[in-house]
What we know:
The chain is built from 15 helices and 16 strands. The chain is of the alpha/beta class. The chain has 2 domains: 228 residues, 3-Layer(aba) Sandwich (Carbamate kinase); 151 residues, VC0802-like, CATH 3.30.2130.10. The strands form 3 sheets. The chain has an 8-stranded mixed sheet, sandwiched between helices. A 6-stranded antiparallel sheet has the order 12-13-11-14-16-15. Strands 5-6 form a two-stranded antiparallel sheet. The longest helix is centred in the first third of the chain and has 25 residues. The radius of gyration is 24 Å and the shape is globular. The chain starts with a helix and ends in a 19-residue tail after the last helix.
Amino acid sequence: xxxxxxxxxxxxxxxxxxxxxxxxxxxxxxxxxxxxxxxxxxxxxxxxxxxxxxxxxxxxxxxxxxxxxxxxxxxxxxxxxxxxxxxxxxxxxxxxxxxxxxxxxxxxxxxxxxxxxxxxxxxxxxxxxxxxxxxxxxxxxxxxxxxxxxxxxxxxxxxxxxxxxxxxxxxxxxxxxxxxxxxxxxxxxxxxxxxxxxxxxxxxxxxxxxxxxxxxxxxxxxxxxxxxxxxxxxxxxxxxxxxxxxxxxxxxxxxxxxxxxxxxxxxxxxxxxxxxxxxxxxxxxxxxxxxxxxxxxxxxxxxxxxxxxxxxxxxxxxxxxxxxxxxxxxxxxxxxxxxxxxxxxxxxxxxxxxxxxxxxxxxxxxxxxxxxxxxxxxxxxxxxxxxxxxxxxxxxxxxxxxxxxxxxxxxxxxxxxxxxxxxxxxxxxxxxxxxxxxxxxxxxxxxxxxxxxxxxxxxxxxxxxxxxxxxxxxxxxxxxxxxxxxxxx
Length: 489
């Protein structure tokens, strides 16, 4: 006799993963919509739910821990109280009085952690991760209770107990081989019984058993890990926005959502546009040849962005224009650098030792100058680390100086259509020149998926809008009406 679960796994369309949280789960209204979406989808498929903290509660809990470590107990308690009240209000609005709620014990533990942090006057990354995970655990309890109230059985699975990671708190990396087995072992029995698993998103388990988190957007990574392990076909991220915008909406508020992205395009945007997607979530997604849909919980039938492995031919060379403004340029310059084997490796090693990530890198063909873009908050530490690590080269005159240029923004143009399309780079540079934007540095990979340009921070807005006009990011609509008009300088 055939095992029903075997047939379930073979038919990938039968399993779906829904992720809820963040700005797509802010009050009882959003929670009620989430429960209705879950119950409707569960009629036709086996559903796995991933929950992350409502609104900004994950970051608020993190800040509460930091304040406690700094001795600001009043500020810490105020933040914690605000977070707890958000969940309790949602519970009270969703369920009748007297129904037992399972949120208090979660925040009782957070209060104990804050007390310990205050006594030690230290908020370690280990403690902060445990505190941050409380948001996902509380959200999972809310969704589980809502699903059960709708007549469907559900059970919370705390991923901090079985998704094995390394020991890097705050940005842990899952151990994929072990993770797949653990996920299947816990989820399969629930699906076989018709129970909806509700997983805590963005959490894992360090080698010593402590709770780790995956960083901002970690629920996205949990969703794709679970989908890959369970051989699911699709993942839906329910957010407060209708998909991924074609341009940075802080600069171009009316930028439309992209209807489709290839895995590689989405990965590029996730790196350059903080908060859109967790960069790591695209790896399991592509490995499983799955599709991800990003929808607004406020307009479930509205427009959305789909991410998969298809390459569409009907789009122009550029799909999106995004920007980051909090950067500096580090320049390592010296006539004696030419022909020095390993110089770039030494520069990167110096920064890696301080856990400083390089956002953009370019080098002159003469090898006499290396230019790096890094976060502004790391500028002082990076310059000190490089001066210390390259002191011998500076002493003998191989390196003349290490210069920091503050107030820099990065504008990135993304699109698989740029590959093999002559003239795209020329159009980018001409559009910026017409807008009066001076280019400080440029970086492009050999695959021609994206071009990143460093400009003055004061030029970022003009640059993004100019490129949106040049590549008709708003489609066939009038650019002036869509908010893209740029006056030439």
